[in-house]
Every structure is written in structure tokens, then in C-alpha cells.
Write a sequence for this structure.
């Protein structure tokens, strides 16, 4: 399966102020996700889990997002939120890049539900994490067994780009150095 820009949307799941500091390697996840967002030239949907308790999207992520809109949820799976499914449907894209927290809860359930709904979820393994590394490891293994595609931020950015020798290539090359 080749992932093409014209058929792709990205989802940033629940990278929030009160949870993020407790996430394993949270600084790396923030840096990688910022690079991913800056290099993507596809629509991006952002979710926030129970903002009253977990706060808003962290500023380091929020400042690189073009769209200020967020979809608030209390369900673990983004797919259990009608507003989210409507937003995904409106994009008319079949490939859905996923990044965020926590891998073994919201990311896992969203990926599995998207798969069941006929979409092709692509989890960016170096842009997801959990509080415990083993939880992330098992979740990634399960997703892969179920048919979810795993990738890295650098790999997906260059796959969507397809060609070198243009301004976007130069920008992405600077980002991933």
C-alpha cells in the first residue's frame, strides 16, 4: 500500500498539558510530533481528552498547528465521537496518520476502530507513547498484528513527498536533520 498525500489526513491525539509530562520520553515525542506536523501537507485533526482534567494541547504542539480547532472527547477511541467521524468523513481521505498519547489506550482504540470502519490507519511509532514503555510496545505489536501500518515520522514525510529537488524537500530535509 502506497500512502499518497491526496488520500491522507493526520490525527494528533490527546497530547495535553497535564498528561504529557508523565509520558515516557515526552520531550522526544513532542519534538518528533512537531517535525511531523511541520512537514505534513495534509489536513490535520486534533483531539483532546477531557480538557477539564487533562488541560489543552501542549503549547509546543499547538504553536505549529495551522488550524486552532480541537475536538474534545471523553471516549477513548476518537471514532466514538460523532464530530470526529464527521470531520474524517468530510476529508474524503482513506489513509489516516495517527500520532499522540497514550499508545495503549486512545491511539490503539482509534486505530482499531478506523480499521474496522474501512480506513487505513498509519501509526507513527516515534510520535506515540504511553506512561510505561511496555504498554506502548505491546500496543504497537497488537496494532501491527491487526493490520495497522507502522512507520516513522521521517519515513512518512518522505513517502508523502515522493520527489526530491523542490522547496518542500528542502524544508523536510532541514526538519529531520
Amino acid at each position: 500500500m502506497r500512502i499518497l498525500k491526496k488520500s491522507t489526513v493526520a490525527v494528533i491525539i490527546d497530547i495535553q498539558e497535564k498528561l504529557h509530562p508523565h509520558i515516557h520520553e515526552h520531550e522526544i515525542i513532542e519534538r518528533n510530533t512537531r517535525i511531523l506536523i511541520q512537514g505534513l501537507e495534509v489536513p490535520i485533526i486534533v483531539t483532546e481528552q477531557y480538557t477539564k482534567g487533562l488541560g489543552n494541547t501542549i503549547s509546543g504542539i499547538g504553536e505549529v498547528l495551522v488550524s486552532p480547532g480541537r475536538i474534545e472527547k471523553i471516549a477513548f477511541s476518537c471514532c466514538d465521537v460523532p464530530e470526529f467521524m464527521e470531520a474524517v468523513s468530510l476529508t474524503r481521505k482513506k489513509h489516516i496518520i495517527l500520532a499522540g498519547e497514550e499508545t495503549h489506550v486512545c491511539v490503539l482504540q482509534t486505530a482499531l476502530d478506523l480499521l474496522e470502519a474501512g480506513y487505513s490507519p498509519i501509526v507513527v511509532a516515534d510520535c506515540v507513547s504511553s506512561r510505561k514503555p511496555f504498554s506502548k510496545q505491546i500496543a504497537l505489536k497488537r496494532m501491527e498484528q491487526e493490520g495497522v501500518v507502522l512507520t516513522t515520522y521521517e519515513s512518512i514525510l518522505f513517502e508523502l513527498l515522493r520527489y526530491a529537488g523542490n522547496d518542500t524537500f528542502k524544508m523536510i530535509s532541514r526538519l529531520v536533520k
